[in-house]
Design brief:
By secondary structure, this protein is mostly helical. It folds into two domains: about 60 residues; about 70 residues, no CATH class. The protein is about 60% helix and about 5% strand. The protein has a two-stranded antiparallel ribbon. α1 runs antiparallel to α2 and α3 runs parallel beside α4. The N and C termini lie far apart (about 40 Å). About 5% of the residues have low confidence.
Length: about 140
């Protein structure tokens, strides 16, 4: 199943990367291609997480420690949420403190899909948008 899902997506991502290197694109078109690439990367991550959840259920997933930049993670989620907000005719803003440290995360079923849960919740909450600031 992994091959059937990843191969076409990798083709899309490859074309998006080629287009992003083109000097003939307007700034607006370049931003659109970057959005395609970003969403494709996110979809690839979700596919990997779904496949990992299947491994967890089958008892075949080995846990690993990994470090990630919380600021980059939140910016990635915000970019996806901003796209949904824009499509709904809303303005989305996001700000984080610049001194966020890297976190080490023991990847488990609960840590997988956090971004998926956040992004899934966004369309439901866009109609009732309100400012939110993290402490």
């Amino acid at each position: 199943m992994s091959h059937e899902l990843r191969t076409p997506l990798n083709g899309i991502l490859g074309y998006a990367q080629l287009l992003s290197r083109s000097e003939e694109l307007s700034p607006s078109s370049l931003r659109s291609v970057e959005a395609i690439e970003h969403c494709g990367d996110h979809l690839l991550m979700l596919i990997s997480e779904i496949l990992d959840l299947a491994k967890i259920e089958a008892g075949r997933l080995e846990l690993e420690n990994s470090t990630f930049e919380l600021h980059e993670f939140l910016a990635s989620v915000a970019d996806i949420a901003r796209l949904g907000a824009t499509q709904a005719g809303l303005i989305f803003s996001h700000e984080t403190r610049s001194a966020m440290a890297a976190f080490s995360d023991r990847r488990t079923a609960t840590s997988y899909g956090r971004s998926c849960l956040i992004c899934s919740a966004m369309p439901l909450n866009l109609r009732n948008a309100a400012p939110y600031r993290s402490a």
